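TEACHING EXERCISE
Course module: macromolecular assemblies
Task: Read the component lines below, then compare them to the predicted structure of the full complex.
Student: A.B.
Group: 4
Components provided:
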Amino acid sequence: ENIFDRSRMAPKTPIKNEPVDLSKQKGCTPERNPITPVKLTDRPQPDPWTPTANLKILVSAASPDMRDREKKKELFRPIENSEQSDTPDSLQYDMVDDSTVDEFEKQRPSRKQKSLGLLCQKFLARYPSYPLSTEKTTISLDEVASILGVERRRIYDIVNVLESLHLVSRVAKNQYCWHGRHNLRQTLKTLQEAGELQYGELMTFFQHKEQDLEYKFGERKKETIPDTQDKPLLDFSEPDCTSASANSRKDKSLRIMSQKFVMLFLVSKTKIVTLDIAAKILIEETQDTVDHSKFKTKVRRLYDIANVLTSLGLIKKVHVTEERGRKPAFKWIGPVELPGKTVEPRGNNPASDPLPRTQRGVCAPYQICATGKQRFTRHASFNGSQPCEGTRRKVSSEPNSPHQERQDEYCSKMINLAAVCRQKIEEDTRSPSTTLPLSLLPVPGDSDFCVNPLPQAVFPMVQADVPNLALLNGVSSQTLHPSMPAASKTENGKPTLLPSQPFLCFPSPSLFMLCSGLQENNLRETLPTTGEVGNRSAEAQAAVPPAACQKRSSHKCTSPSPPVDDEEPAAKKQAMEQSDVPLSLVVPKKPSESPKAESVLGSGCTPAVHLEAFHLDLASPAAPEAADKESTKPLDPQEQEKWSQNKDPDEPSPGEEHISKENANQPFLPQYLYVQPTAGLSSFNFLFSANQAPGAISLAASQLPSLSVPCVVVPSAALASFPVVCSPTVTGPLSPVPDGSFSAATSMNFSVSGLASTAPVFIGTTAVVTPKISPTPSVDPQQPHPALHLSPVLARSCSALKLDSPMCMGHPVTLLKLQQPSSTPLTPKSIRPARHEAFFKTPGSLGDPVAWKKNEGNQIRNASSVQRRLEISGTSPD
DNA sequence: CGATCCCGCCACATT
DNA sequence: AATGTGGCGGGATCG
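Instructor-supplied answer key:
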């Protein structure tokens, strides 16, 4: 600085007066060397310029602007210099180099030089990032504005964003207090948590899309997607909401928008958010109208915010390429690992908590939408609400044409759904009384995530799984972590529909594996990852009993995880590094495509896929890129293959083979009952060992009357559509009924079925084939299958799906490993840090494809169902 | 020509 | 009513 000052200052005075040397300027500009002592030497021209200087002066005198600028320059130069040194922005440098330039600029200040980002940098340069706690710096807007030479209006833009991150807080009119970044992490964490609740699903969803697009993997998506974007607008428009005036506009946009925007990054697996997506999401929240102008405006605002965030070094601009071309996007480059998760960050910040505000703001709309009950009265929430309804309506109205839907619509729907779900969840959580237990839960994540640990107790293992799963699911779930085991829910009361019965209700979308004794050790041996899975499953079994599990999870983490982590993470990382963008692992979601699935609604197939995905995920958090899969994980190539196969309807069989290897029983043997939630928000998967998960689960198969198989009731949360796969127990051939005819009825009660109308259920009877043992895959049909009876709907779905489908089979196999509960489950957290990204990605990627398809196919439905549910709930509980 | 986004009008909020 | 805030979008610039 000194140097600069010297150089500058000395000449400056004179310079000021002088100069505008375009030629010179330009020369300088290009150079932009931040530090240019040399320049001094270069710039020997003070005197000569004098004449010019005079002129200049005149000019400046004439125009206030000029004056301001000069002022600004003077004041800021130092700042700029320092900044420049820090940040390599060419633009800024120019200014630094010579005052002349600046002046010059005055005349014709490039737009860039006046950019909000630059202004923000200057602004930030004035204050220490980490001020001493003792001293509080107050910021006078007027002062700053004048110093920086800008209208106050611009300062508001900056301050609002900073305030959203708690870097500053407003103390009085025109007065802000500078806090610095001390609490930034905490704030981010809070935002992340809030974001997960609010946007987890959405982001996942979107990201998948993006990823898919970006990576070829996603061909499928492309298929579906293409149309979507074209038309942005659509029907959403909800007229009425517009008058937001009602609520104070105050906590409306910029601030909130900024927080939301940040949340998107924090929730995003890829840490990359495209502007258009962000705009869409944000628009939804507030007002749904998606008209073009609105979108444009939103984008403009986002640019404003992005500029400030960029200046803060939290994000950087990037481009994502997708089919349509490249889209502007921003990548989060700020801290990713937030402080340990605590519950709610409440308060570190002295001043007001922005968060609260934010949360409120965010939540409000949802809440409103979902139910009449509004906690927070104020805000645009209303606007939001309306939109929601509108959207909802639409959703419901539009049964399914996911493919056709436009992105926008789709997105909005998604958003709405999410909101609804969220709400529901919240409500549920809060009020046990809620009658709709099953339907909503899906979102459990919230509770878990945020603060409620309840679930953990119940199924520790689950939790471990969950994270992964959640990720996988993508859409639904990041948030879900939740492991929230049925139990927990039950506790709450929500989920437990049938307390007395032997059913388990799982609120969250997680994968559960219940195994009674299976012996498939080999697998484990073979595949480490698998082992993990197995462990998990085992745990799950064990876990079932609430208490026990918890600890396990921790243990699990230890043993199994370590290896995994290392491997996976590394791989992932590498992958990541190579390409910033995470690969969409899952690309293959084609399952939905499979005819069967479609017939069923897509859900059927998907589930299988999911499982695989899950497995993969579990096994290796690392993203399952094609390449990665193999190398990365030893896991199980087979699985992967299966997976891929599954994905690809085309080659179902091959996958089976692999599977078979793993487990002899694939086809129908499924000893597990696996329920997968589809894409929807709420998805949860279950793996059940058909055989009996007896004790552990609490559901004794025995309990189930006709079926010896344990039943699991899955509340489909919002989505309702989740396929359930049951492998009937094994007792063998109790009933000769062929698989195909599930109809035989066992008396399984799937109360659930009712709930989730759409959800397909698969029931595989099983022979008791241990994986190893069962030599024949094809067996199922032959083997006696215990008859299960499902609700008609379910039955149908089942039939449609066909147990046979390799997909289904495959999964089970994989799962089997479980038995060993020994290993402690990986704790999400423990794992997380290391592969944080990986997890997300993996899941996401996996989830994506599936989600996508599902979404496309099912989602709508789900949505509709959900909505329906909600409505119902509103009116009358189930 | 699309991506950016400056600029400042003007509505709403606060004093 | 004056002044503070800040939504908003036209249209200039940039790439």
